[in-house]
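User: I'm curious whether this sequence folds into something compact or stays loose and floppy. Could you predict its structure so I can see for myself?
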Amino acid sequence: MNVHSMRAILALAIFFPISISYAEQTTSEQIQQLYIGYLGRAADPAGLEYWTGQVEGGLITIDQIRVNLVNEQPEYQENYGVLSNSDLVVAIYLGLFNREPDEAGRLYWEDQLNLGLVLPDQLIIAFINGAFPDDRAILDNKLTAAACYTSNPEFYSADLVARIITELDKSEAYTQCPPVADAGADQSVNSEDLVELDGSGADLESGVTLMWSQLSGPAVELSDNSVANANFIAPSVESGSTESVELQLTAIDGSGAAGTDNVLINVTGITPIDAFSFYQASISDQIIQGRCINCHIQGGLASGSALRYQRDSVAGYQITNFNLLDDYVDTGNSETLLSKPRGVGHGGGVQLSATSESYQNWQTFVEMLMSN
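Assistant: Here's the prediction. I'll summarize afterward.
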């Protein structure tokens, strides 16, 4: 370590000892202070994420970021790199605290820079650690505003945030951050499914109202566009095709500030299974031939019933038995078909447990016949 570096460290330690509050700041807060002091704006979302990851991953230090911003970033060079040492001290003070340093302080730090005892990238530590309470209050306000816009990329604009940060003072805490809107994760559903939207991650503090709106895709009708968990029926989509419905959730606070977030619902058209195909696959052999045929047949115990089936040895038995059941439902007997297999008013007792897969298939089949 050279003599100049040692003198710089001693100057910083004597005049501006590291405060507990600075040591306790998060990585992102320390990085935001560098952006505010040296670039005059909040960190952009990608930049903050990158630098925070590098520091917390042990790949780089905060000190190295300071050196990088001052010596390698064109943005710093264009705005601060061309300044004299005296003007640099004033510019960084203004960026952090919205005021110029007192004359004695300006002359002191100008002299330290001229002698090479302090480097430009070290000024910010000295100024922050030596900040008076009023100065600290202003910087804290700037940090709050910076964090607000950096953590909400949809609101972030370097020029806008630079203007907001420049105009902040200590008069009151910054509370103008737009509310957060969170429309939930994108979804993939089938044609005519019930789609449940999840906006529960939005900022739902008192005074914040929500509004869903559709941006694109086949028109859908929301159950209620002013609640977090609205729902709608997915549009009918041609078999084998996919349509996308894009919705936007807007969160609006009492001042009119608004945050938005979008969600994409991808709707796929499926080929419906017709009732007869379902009957062949899940009902005929498993239930009619497996359970009902012994009684519900000519000469059987239930031969007096309207439901008399054909055995599987008879040609065309499946379509014959299917048509028999279809006609039975058409004459208003669907409830009978659903209750008797469970033993309700059935001379043959319980044939299908209500919780069994076979009964669930039977119920689906009857519902399909009812919708024909």
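Summary: The radius of gyration is 36 Å. Residues 80 and 88 are 6 Å apart (CA to CA).
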